[in-house]
Amino acid sequence: MALGITYDCGSYGALFTPQCYGGQLKIITGSIAFDNSYPTGGESMDISEMFTNLLIVLFESKSGYVFEYDYSNKKVKAMVGDNDGASDGPLAEVANGTNLSALTAVRFLAIGY
Q1: Range of the domain at 28
Q2: Where are the beta strands (DSSP E) in the chain?
Q3: 94 vs 65: CA distance, rounded Å
Q4: Measured between alpha carbons, how far is residue 44 from residues 29, 60, 67 in Å?
Q5: Does the residue 56 lie in any domain?
Q6: pLDDT score for 23
Q7: What is the pLDDT of residue 65?
Q8: What is the dihedral of CA 39, 99, 71, 105, to 10 degrees?
Q9: Does residue 79 form part of some domain?
Q10: In 10, 28, 78, 84, which residue has its Cα 20 to 30 A from 91's Cα atom?
Q11: What average pLDDT does range 14-33 have in this prediction?
Q12: Domain assignment of residue 1, yes or no
């Protein structure tokens, strides 16, 4: 079965128009640093003062960790590969209280209006 692709905006013939939202699209870059006690559910990362409509937040992976933005709760979750059992799934959230203070300068890119 092939991968299905849905564009957030239309295509015009053979041409794809990447800036299809109109208005003032904002791109914000920055970095985050974790502390020595990761809380279950993620660290607070409220960047709503920068956007009226946040479209996506992307993070670089670092030191074997990958990061996921929780849009509803405005938090960043740290995830690790969990290969000890199929029931766990491919990634699991870092355990509560884990020291992630070595994870500094984790770059992010946020896009919105």
Answers
A1: 21-112
A2: 11-12, 15-16, 26-32, 43-44, 54-59, 65-70, 75-81, 91-93, 106-112
A3: 9
A4: 17, 18, 13
A5: yes
A6: 67
A7: 96
A8: 150
A9: yes
A10: 28
A11: 71
A12: no
